[in-house]
Amino acid sequence: MTRSNPKNPVRFVDLLIFLLQTQGETLKRLAAFFGEEEFIEILESQETSPVKAAHADPASKFEPDLEWFQEIEGMPGSPYLELEDAVRELGLPAPLEFHLWAYGFYRSLIESGVELKSVILPSVSNEDGTIDPLDVLIAESIKQAKAWITGLPIPSTVYLQAESAALTPWVRFRARVLSRAGRKVLSAI
Question: Which range of residues forms the domain containing residue 73?
Fold first, then answer.
């Protein structure tokens, strides 16, 4: 496997911060849509929902390839503190902050074995060809967000409006991450 040198690399912790900020915005929008108390009840009933059982947790099925990352020695600061600061700046009520930290896709990434002090490589070549790990991670993040909203026990009478509210921040997610990488966004999601 060959790796190209990152020209304008995205740090893994930056991707996680954008992910948490976007999911935090999603939680805020849904809390405004349903009312905070009702939305917290929806979140808490999610684990026992038949909809949740019907849609197996996709986060458990995704593990990033460790070859997509390169650890950078001597990176200043603490990535854990950066994550905590980003979440604190969202100003979420404690129950929503709990659900943000418990977000399945974030948990799968943070527990994947990728060092927080890594950068995402711009391309990785193997016997199957060349891939762009950042593009794969962005696409998977959006796929996971869609699966998460589908797994919520939302009444069918308001599902489409709730889905629209929940997915709107994810439209900006892709643009923010690509912008951080110094790329121009040429197409919609």
Answer: 2-180
How do residues 11-38 score in pLDDT, each as one tens digit?
999 999 999 999 999 999 999 999 999 9
Counting the structural domains of the chain, the total is 1
Q: What is the DSSP string of the chain?
A: -EEPPPSSPEEHHHHHHHHHHHHHHHHHHHHHHH-HHHHHHHHHHGGG-HHHHHS--GGGG----GGGEEE-TT--S-HHHHHHHHHHHHT--HHHHHHHHT-HHHHHHHTSS--TTEEE-S-EEETTEEE-HHHHHHHHHHHHHHHHHHTS---TTTHHHHHHHHHHHHHHHHHHHHHHTTPPP-S--
Tell whether 187 is covered by a domain. no
Does any domain span residue 146?
A: yes
Of 26, 56, 43, 51, which is closest to residue 156 (Cα–Cα)?
51
Q: What's the pTM value of the predicted model, to 2 decimals?
A: 0.87
Asked if residue 186 is part of any domain, the answer here is: no
